[in-house]
Give the backbone structure.
Amino acid sequence: MPPPALTTVRARTLFTPLDAGGRADTVTRRLANAIRLGLLLDGERLPAESQLAGQLGVSTVTLREALATLRTMGLVETRRGRGGGSFVRAPDDADRLERPLRLLSLHELRDIGDHRAAIAGTAARLAAERALASDITTLREHAERLRGATALTDRRRADARLHIEIAATAQSPRLTRAEMDLWSEIGDLVWLPMEGRDVTSAARDHDLLIDAIGARSAGRAREIAERHVAAETDRLLELRLSLHRR
Amino acid sequence: MTMQVATGPPALREGEHLLADITATIGRVVRSVTEVGAAMTALAAAARAGRRPLRRADLAALRPLVAQVLSRHRGFAAGAGVVLAPDALMDAPRCIDWWWADRGSGPGQLEVDLDPDSAEFYDYTTTEWYREPARTGQPSVAGPYVDYICTHEYTFTVSVPIVDDGRFVGVAGADILAGEVERMLLPRLSLLGRAGRPVVLVSGNGRVIASSTARILPGAVLRSSGTAAAAAGGLPWMLISGPEPAA
């Protein structure tokens, strides 16, 4: 296998070959996601078409189709001539952050909140029943990491990690997978800059939650987790509505 | 709530046999990964003797050995490999060279994000299976725990320290699915528990590994102190007879 033309480990994940059913829209979605998530950086030059097509396991025709769509979306820019090629154009921050929120309806946001509450609530309850002292130490370390995080990606990572660790403390691979799936879906949204969203309030919730888990208060742990998710969902719903008021 | 020693000597003996057998089985995996660790030590020593830095590409020499571990423990070891201490390699600040067992489509390499600036960064230096051998210099059996990085299952990780010239270079290890351990134990465990009191196998920290009763399930923690019916040789595991589930 040739060395990946893009340098990060993430880029390698991105370029795992597509299934046989891979079509232009799959390629488009994958690249668009990578750009939106910042895996491909603004101004980064994409590999030559034949090479990129090879890495993605699609024909150059399919790749060209995908690139054309990405150009109309404003996510890729193609320059001709010497030093030319296809370049990533990351949307500016506010736009990049808000776009995924715009795509969700209020009822979808509400439903995601319901799902999160079910998973996080049960995970918290079972974690309280099954945690060892060493698990509590690990949870506190993750909570501390979030408190110290300043960049949005760090906060998102630390927050996701803490909730995934709580599900792992519940000793349930299925709940853990569910938390991971939920966070990869909504992680970007949870830390959108918005009113009432700051590390201090999240940290307070997390401290109370870990206290309850450590005290083996299953009912209380569940209640705190559900309230925490409900508050985050409310903020997202408010923000979603406010997009129409500007 | 009290825990009691297994009732009669025959049950006690059978429990001891059961523990001896599972200890031996896991011990064989420990010996296999120790071979991988020794090979890694040899690579590090050779690089040191040749006054050249250790590189990622050097690890390719370990792969036949890792493949051998996986085939030797087929159906039991779900993955194996080496995980290096930060800055052990010149061209990679962190490195996981880990392979999972062939599940029909050939063995595969675990890919994780080791870029500390990334949202998906996986800091393996905080895990029990890395920290324990680093701290004690001894083999360790971590778990059962939910491994959400590699197997995505309830897992034990066996790991041994890799030391070159007194310096900790990393760990060699293997993943064992908790389900496989239970499958191995359950028939005899349920026979043991049939007589009256339930019998439960717990890890050193009180986590239930396998049980003869549906009232105490794997993953639960036995909170009360009690007397062990039998303790394992090399493993900090205990067989407990007649425990009550934690309130």
Observations:
- Confidence is low (pLDDT under 50) at residues 1-22 of chain A.
- The first strand of chain A starts at residue 76 and ends at 79.
- Chain A touches chain B through 27 residues (CB under 8 Å).
